[in-house]
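Here we describe the complex-level prediction in full. Unlike the single-chain runs in Section 2.1, the two entities below were treated as one system.
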Amino acid sequence: MLGRTSPRPHIGIIPAVPDLFEKRLVFVTGKGGVGKSTVSIALGLAAAERGLRTIVCEVASQENASRVFKKGEVGFNEVGVADNLWAISIDPDESLREYLLLQLKVRAARDLLMRSRIFNYLTAATPGLKEMVTIGKIWELAGTDRRVKKGRQYDLVIVDAPATGHGVGFLQTPRTFAGIARVGPIHNQAKALDAFITQHETTGAVIVSLPEEMPVNESASLERQLTEDVGVEVDRVYMNAIYPERFSSEEARKLERVLEITQGPPHAAVRAALSQHRRANAQREQLARLQRSIRVPVSTLPFIFKPRLDVGELRRLAGELG
Amino acid sequence: MPSADEILRDRSICICAGSGGVGKTTTSAALAAGLAARGHRVCVLTIDPAKRLADSLGLEELGNEPRQVDPKLFEEADVEMRGELWAMMLDAKATFDELVRKQAPDEETRDRILQNRIYRQISNALAGSQEYMAMEKLFEINHEGRFDFLVLDTPPSRNALDFLDAPKRLTQFIEGRGMQMFMKPTGIATKVVGRTSSMMFSVLKRVVGIDLLADLGEFFQAFSGMVDGFRERAKRVNELLADPATTFMVVCGPQGEPIEEAVYFHRKLVEAKLPVGGVIVNKVHYATEADLSDSGVADELSGPLGDELAERVAANFRDYQALAKRDAHNVDHLARELQAKAVIRVPYMDEDVHDLTGLLKIDRYLFASEAERNQLAAAGTS
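The structure predicted for the assembly as a whole is:
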């Protein structure tokens, strides 16, 4: 969105970091490919480590949790993946079935509806219905009084939310629905969900970003949209995959000179070092730019030089979440 | 392995597809710039270009209509501009409105739809509407025939395949035939016959509410006269996608997951009988022979750099090599899956790309042969 990312003047006083883990529900948002799933699972591990009964919800059947914890498909079940940590992959169709049963209380009535052509047409055609029932399920999971029989009580629900764009639309769904249905049961449900999402004491959001031009722009506008348009409180931004500062500028100048007089592998090594130096510098500029354009605290996470992240790496990352 | 030049020869539409965060917008812009410099009259249809990139191309106010990039910018970057580069930013809502205007049988229907509360809520937010409108705009601009090459940057979907189904889903959505009999704005359920249906309807009322049903009925009714028009249009959009003059380029990153997604996406495109040109892998850590050998780097460098710095340079090099090996492994896997199709590697540049100079740097790789690309990388021109 052009012209929507002008930097905001830096506010000198950063509010005291509210502890994310005191919330009941945290949405992890951000542009595609920034590491939302990684941060969601790491947050889950960190919370579980502190003794909080935590569940990580995936909403687009990514099944990242099952991959990381080497479990079979998690699916629409609350599956234990570590001490105090559970995972679920929220399927909209299953959520709808569950919701209808809770609403109608009679299985036969629910099944009658689910079998009807008209109803299936309606559910397939109604825009945002999938998002709506997904948020409904998240709400149910986070409830102090679970509506599902024998539902486990969680202290914290972490949602690996859809990417920016889709993510804002996702969180706005209850309000959109409340607007479409002016009165009636859907209206009331939607209002309740919206109230829950926008209640700052219980619900928060983190934005995951990368130290690059587009992700920084998008994070700044995402923060604005989440706070101003949706009304969700953004607690923190995690700037992901930050390179270590391995070489000082003085060393870089020395390396430039040495580059000229080397060949073969040493030459390639010096070039890689210079490249790393330039990248690390560019990243720090982007980090500073993000800090200037956003009102919430920014924490950094290190780049992990590993082909694939395993549980061990994620636990290490969990330690860095601060 | 062919270059972008060969893949795009004799084509007139290139659709860049892939999951979010892999550099699709930049790649689309780079392809368009390269094609324009080579003599085509090109328009790139983009979704949400970085402000800095748009600004640097003099396109601050990019909108739903194409605007030309000043050829002087190419001159200043020392590139001969033999064609024309145009760009536009897709606006799903505006495109949807235009489509309704075009398809509505009369003014009354048109106004009824444009002012319908549900339409206004959903024309922006309907899942897949952005994807469909991207296709729609592509179709329209192609139909106008003002350009000899179009490059489409597809929306960042949660699922990169969404846009393939988008036309079908949209038609299904507005069809609503079954709904109408239940939902005449006056007297809901009066037309319902049969006990099961009426039971079903009372259950439906309990869940959904009577007012929402009435509103939906009104909405589907308003659209009912346009269903055939929409369906016909969707059919023609699909024909355009499958046309031999169209080619899909899958864009991805070198990490495991993006590569797997690219493989999956490529397979789906082939299954859908859509023409795939190849895959562009961005941000690759190139590895030349020198990059992969680490024999005595620290020792050799300890003279000019001192032991401590030389060791740090060597340690950093080992990390780089690990990433280069991972990328090479992933790209090999991709190439095997794609068999004879092109895999074009664009290196991880030292700086983010946000101006024409950056795009042209990418072009040197996109429009080069595999051998030339390796030479460029070995010479350290990133």
